């Protein structure tokens, strides 16, 4: 099963239902795509890419854009080729994005027309690209030709804090892998990749993570069950495309006949405006977010709107950062609120989420003071979670290190 197959199954049932809504949160009315529109636009893009791209085995296509009504159809159009999409944030530092593109050895990139000038000014020094570009609706396809230069992030301040031996060990590991390629399946050549991302680099040099459909589809399927998603639900695209939870948000919605709400990035940092758009105008029912995004609303707005007694929000999943304390969580909820709250945990290398824990209603409603940390909970479908001691042995109790796999 692939992501595109999940969407096509839903589209065959809910073809005339709203699949995507983009609200610019200004004087303009929101724009909508039905599932029929979504599939049609995606198929046109797939045909365009098959006509103009010579993949030669490796199928990875960059996508340089801001959030908008077309983003889901662009992603679907790429993975239908089939190819993996590699999202690139126009607002990310060019050095980091260039490092990512070069490490992926991207040969093709789709650039949103509105971002063309920014793309050219950011990357023309580092890249040679074909001036005979090809346009498709609101996109421009570039064929990339890399110069014989090294993209050296060591000049970046972030890299200076890493010890030399870590770099040496990483290099040695890469050389070892190159010497024995037969021991590793190159999923890029099997046309089974869904997307390509890079880690944030906060705990080391940014790593490229290639995610096959087989690794992310179980996440989608499990969350559909956990959140009891129906065609009546509205999910918010809270995460940037470069953050793998965005895949969950997009495809949990579009594989269920539900609607996906998208707003400009600039609106996400305007708490009052965002709260009004999400919970008054569009009645969002499912929200997956970082605690930071939730905290932006402020305690009063969270209690009066997000987690009020009359909120539209059925399920709230918090992940990507340390989960708030129970005291804080209880303070956010208005009396009578019935929103189910989940702690989700994962790492990019095991996309997207690995574990989940639903906070029991009796704990949320308890008046007893409890400052114990919220547990990680249970493995999601297709995920293996082990705790090992300092010797690497699996343990059932005590203190150890968490190992994740899929």
* Uncertain residue segments: 154-185
Overall 3D form: globular
Q: What is the name of the CATH architecture of the domain at 3-8 and 33-161 and 188-212?
A: 3-Layer(aba) Sandwich
As a whole number of angstroms, the C-alpha radius of gyration is 22 Å
Number of strands: 19
CATH homolog superfamily of the domain at 3-8 and 33-161 and 188-212 = ANL, N-terminal domain
CATH class of the domain at 3-8 and 33-161 and 188-212: Alpha Beta
CATH topology of the domain at 3-8 and 33-161 and 188-212: Rossmann fold
Structural class by secondary-structure content: alpha/beta
**N/C terminus separation:** 16 Å
Largest sheet: 6 strands, mixed
The level of helicity is 25-40%
Mean pLDDT across residues? 88
Count, helices: 13
Provide the β-strand percentage band: 15-25%
Protein name: Beta-alanine-activating enzyme
Pfam families: AMP-binding
Keywords: ATP-binding, Fatty acid metabolism, Ligase, Lipid metabolism, Nucleotide-binding, Phosphopantetheine, Phosphoprotein
Region (Disordered): 163-183
